[in-house]
Write a structure and sequence with these properties.
Blueprint (H helix, E strand, L loop, with lengths): L17 E5 L15 H14 L3 E4 L3 E2 L11 E5 L6 H13 L3 E6 L9 H8 L5 H4 L3 E2 L22 E3 L5 E3 L14 H17 L3 E4 L41 H13 L6 E4 L19 E2 L2 H4 L5 H16 L6 E3 L8 H4 L8 H6 L9 H17 L3 E5 L20 H5 L43 H4 L6 H13 L7 E3 L6 E6 L2 E6 L5 E2 L6 E5 L7 E2 L3 E6 L4
Parallel strand pairs: 1-2, 1-13, 2-5, 5-9, 9-10, 10-11, 12-13
Antiparallel strand pairs: 3-4, 6-8, 7-8, 14-15, 15-16, 16-20, 17-19, 18-20
């Protein structure tokens, strides 16, 4: 059995952990229907443990009509048949814990599915009824109520309001099939506290909270128009702070109540916020009586520039430490263009337009993207805090930018009038083997088409190959463990275009300048390089690790 060396029941295991994100539909398919499932995850957990991760984060696997890839939940206490059963989840949990892996599950509290029993009851009930009060129903504007209550815009395109036959409108920040819940309603509050306890009692180790910054709204009439300020890309903060439904101060009351529940369990469970807020506001979500972590989207969006990285790393550390926490570091996830492809494009490229060109305009420099993605991995894993790895980044997967239009499943495609291809290109099922009907993803095909040559990125193709992404990640995660426990951080003198710092005894240098840089004389022992390096000169787009206190 492959054995992980996680920190077991240490209540602070999460502070310097590595969490591997599993997008369940695209990780592994055990039953051959082309859709990833929990049995598939269980069968492949050895890969995650061997990689050296401490935990897995599972995206939603609950009952869902799948209008938004499972983020439209119709039953929060059951597994969707396309992904398996509750018994399958119990087996997954047992296997993960046997491997030393913690299990974090997604919770989706801002909205549910339009097929949730509560919403069906709301549609069948009159305006002003208790059933409707669980959601955000309002009368429209204009003499006949025929205009939406406000100009608020959905993240998936179009307005946030949909009208029902009796004339009222309901709110949905995302798709119309995802009605927003009313978090001023005590029934909603109680229901989600019960849902948390259900999964905690089964043995999960924590939660990733979807849209943690959007659960409370300012619904004081008349509603304030926003003139489009709410239509920024996913995970991007809206302009300003006083927004009617993003980053309301009242949302912290919810997180404080949830923290009390998490602390009831031994060892205490954890929670990480998906909060697309400004860097100045992000620490508010990780105060000692709130959540443990929050995703660091400013770091994810950082361009390949030493000055930009230095600023976001410094401000992230300063903000987190002001509340006694540590930052998270995220390069990719299931909502954004994979970072290998982002770093292969010219600075400032509009990735939405690039995807609409099927990845042709501008042309991606894949070799540059590979070098930068490898260097970014070492940079990320050297920083104090928790690294979240998105499945496939350890394989160096690029974005599949040329998915056929008829294959697209993201609701953004239809809701934007075919103006945005959406997120399917980073969700193409993983390749595990060089060949087969879906490169080892499952015994059948795959729900999104895999491109030609996908098998050459596979775990099988990269295992044992010293220059592969997979072996770089395996070595880096193993080496990283030797330096956990010391959270100190200090910048070192650096040249233009270079990052240099120490985290405890681990020294990291990254050359983002575009020209070779001599490595300064040092007594530190060379440990690992992201690319070819003679340890006298640091090539462009390359990172190195050194041990400042050789063991």
């Amino acid at each position: 059995m492959t054995q992980s060396t996680s920190r077991g029941d240490d209540a602070d295991w999460w502070r310097e952990s590595v969490v591997y994100q599993i997008y369940v539909p695209s990780f592994a398919d055990a039953d051959g229907d082309g859709m990833g499932d929990l049995k598939g995850v269980t069968d492949r957990l050895g890969h995650v443990a061997e990689l050296g991760a401490d935990a897995v984060w599972l995206t939603p696997f609950y009952r869902s009509p799948w209008a938004d890839g499972g983020y439209d939940v119709s039953d929060y206490r059951d597994v969707d048949p396309r992904h398996g059963t509750l018994d399958d989840f119990r087996e997954l949990l047992e296997r993960a814990h046997a491997l030393g892996l913690k299990v974090i599950v997604d919770i989706v509290p801002n909205h549910c599915s339009s097929e949730h029993p509560w919403f069906a009851e709301a549609l069948a009930s009159p305006p002003g009824s208790p059933a409707r009060d669980r959601f955000v129903f309002m009368d429209g504007r204009g003499p006949d109520g025929g205009e939406p209550p406000s100009d608020w815009q959905s993240k998936f395109g179009g307005g946030v309001w949909t009208r029902v036959p009796d004339g009222q409108w309901y709110m949905h920040i995302f798709a119309a099939e995802q009605p927003d819940l009313n978090w001023e309603n005590p029934e909603v509050v109680a229901e989600f506290e019960s849902i948390l306890r259900f999964w905690l009692d089964l043995g999960v180790d924590g939660f990733r909270i979807d849209v943690a910054h959007g659960m409370r709204k300012d619904l004081t009439p008349p509603l304030r128009d926003t003139n489009g300020s709410d239509s920024a890309p996913l995970n991007a903060p809206p302009e300003g702070h006083d927004h009617p439904f993003w980053d309301r101060d009242e949302v912290h009351d919810i997180h404080r109540a949830w923290r009390k529940i998490l602390d009831e369990y031994a060892p205490p469970r954890i929670a990480v916020a998906e909060a697309g807020v400004s860097q100045a506001r992000l620490p508010l979500y990780t105060r000692p009586d709130e959540l443990h972590q929050a995703f660091n989207f400013p770091y994810l969006r950082c361009p390949w520039d030493a000055g930009a990285y230095r600023e976001v790393i410094g401000s992230s550390l300063e903000g987190a430490r002001s509340v006694g926490s540590l930052p998270t570091w995220v390069l990719s996830n299931h909502d954004v263009v994979r970072h290998l492809s982002r770093h292969a494009l010219p600075a400032g490229t509009d990735t939405t337009a690039w995807l609409m060109s099927d990845g042709r305009e501008p042309a991606a420099d894949e070799e540059t993207g590979r070098r930068r993605a490898r260097a970014a991995a070492l940079l990320t894993l050297a920083l104090p805090g928790t690294a979240y790895l998105y499945q496939g980044e350890e394989l160096g997967l690029p974005e599949v930018a040329d998915l056929p239009r008829e294959a697209l499943r993201d609701p953004m495609w239809e809701r934007t009038g075919n103006a945005r291809k959406g997120r399917d290109g980073c969700r193409v099922p993983l390749p595990w083997e060089r060949s087969g009907p879906s490169c080892g993803f499952g015994p059948g095909g795959s729900w999104l088409p895999q491109p030609d040559g996908w098998g050459e990125y596979s775990v099988e193709a990269q295992t044992g190959r010293p220059d592969s992404f997979l072996e770089l990640y395996r070595t880096a995660l193993k080496t990283r463990r030797s330096f956990t426990g010391d959270e100190s951080f200090a910048w070192l003198p650096a040249r233009d275009g270079e990052l240099a710092f120490r985290k405890g005894a681990l020294e990291c240098r990254v050359n983002l300048s575009g020209v070779p840089l001599p490595l300064p004389p040092s007594a530190a022992e060379p440990l690992l390089a992201s690319g070819a390096c003679d340890w006298r000169t640091l090539p462009p787009d390359t990172a190195v690790w050194l041990d400042a206190q050789p063991r």
